[in-house]
Amino acid sequence: MTPSGVPVIVLAGFLGSGKTTLLNHLLRTSRMRIGVLINDFGAINIDALLIAGQADGTVNLGNGCICCSVDADGLEDTLLRLTRPRAGIDAVVIEASGIAEPRTLIRMVTAIADARIRYGGLVYVVDAVSVSMVRDRHPEIDHHVSVADLIVVNKADLVEPPELERVGDLVRSVNPTAPRVVTIDGALDPAVLFDPVERVIPDDVGPRQLTLDELVEEIAHDHSAGDGADSEGDHSGHLHAAYTSVEFTSAEPMDPRALAAVLERPPVGSYRIKGVVSFDLPGHRQRYVVHAVGGFVRVDRGPWRGEQPSTALVVIGTGLDADDVRRRLSEAVRRTDTTDEHGILSITRHLPDAG
Ligand SMILES: Nc1nc2c(ncn2[C@@H]2O[C@H](COP(=O)(O)OP(=O)(O)OP(=O)(O)O)[C@@H](O)[C@H]2O)c(=O)[nH]1
């Protein structure tokens, strides 16, 4: 028998492991109506930008780590609103920031005593390339893996089979019971996560089902009305205590060669750079999405979605010199006197199909 209540799944994993990629895959391939709660680290919510347009309903929980910036009541309110029968949501996924403390989040979800929702488990994404290095730096990652209900070993395309096997053994030694799935680009079969549903909207839910835009608007309004305080107290032992982020925005287009240099040789202390970039060059006026994780750079591009082309980047790391980061990015804003017609190649060579 399928348990009752809308499942609330927590999606976690270290910085850059592939959580947003996996979530986008689920949103594209699942036939369910999925509500998404996103919590990103940094004042500009890049993950919300990267998911926008894909999710049925996206609620941006704002700046900071979810376990700090959203108090238990705020999370409860949001979840209960999101799962009202009129909303017709089949499942909720909370994407935690890459340095969130999943156990705190799980406690917050399981503490909600309302039959309308149930905790749907922790899906933990492991980056096959960097997991060993990340464990050396942050042994507490093992605690996160150990409480996972499903472990997704992602980026299988970037490691040789023996290394993949080694990562599998390592994960199993930390969490012997959770099932493991190996993926490329987070291509997880939604059936692994969600029970099939037959959506029945009860008769007593009012004149009509809410559109998700209406729902999101309502929830966003509630959030701006009262931002949560820290309900969990001391976060000094959490991963995010050591990390800071630096945001950068520019209405002026960027210089591709200079930006590529920042992505390939990131500022001292930087572990993760991500964002949306405008180059505004002939043939390259699309919306570029750039990612750097450890030493890996990846670029994707697509159309702007009605927004004004501009650049928004976040750099996350430990011991970042914010002034230096901003200076390097400011220097990568395109100067009008430059004519570097091949500069864009330093960016397009990181497109997945660039060979
Ligand atoms: N080659 C390869 N790249 C991947 C794979 N999965 C994700 N990526 C890339 O890795 C980068 C980070 O992916 P995201 O999905 O943004 O990672 P995240 O865990 O959401 O990152 P944070 O929110 O910053 O913690 C992006 O450039 C992705 O395109 C994969 O399986 N293979």
TrEMBL record:
Q: CobW C-terminal domain location, by residue?
A: 243-333
Where do the coiled-coil regions begin and end?
none
Any Pfam family from its record, for instance, is cobW
Q: List the catalysed reactions.
A: GTP + H2O = GDP + phosphate + H(+)
Q: Which Gene3D superfamilies match?
A: CobW-like, C-terminal domain, P-loop containing nucleotide triphosphate hydrolases
Question: Which keywords belong to this entry?
Answer: Chaperone, Hydrolase, Nucleotide-binding
Which residues are listed as membrane-spanning?
none
Annotated Gene Ontology MF terms? hydrolase activity; nucleotide binding
Task: Note the SUPFAM superfamilies from the entry.
Answer: Hypothetical protein YjiA, C-terminal domain, P-loop containing nucleoside triphosphate hydrolases
Any one GO CC term of this protein is: cytoplasm
Q: Which family does it belong to?
A: Belongs to the SIMIBI class G3E GTPase family. ZNG1 subfamily.
Spell out the PANTHER family in the cross-references. Answer: COBW DOMAIN-CONTAINING PROTEIN, COBW-RELATED
Indicate what this protein is called per its UniProt record.
CobW C-terminal domain-containing protein
* Source species of the chain: Gordonia soli NBRC 108243
Q: Where is the organism placed in the taxonomic lineage, from the top?
A: Bacteria, Bacillati, Actinomycetota, Actinomycetes, Mycobacteriales
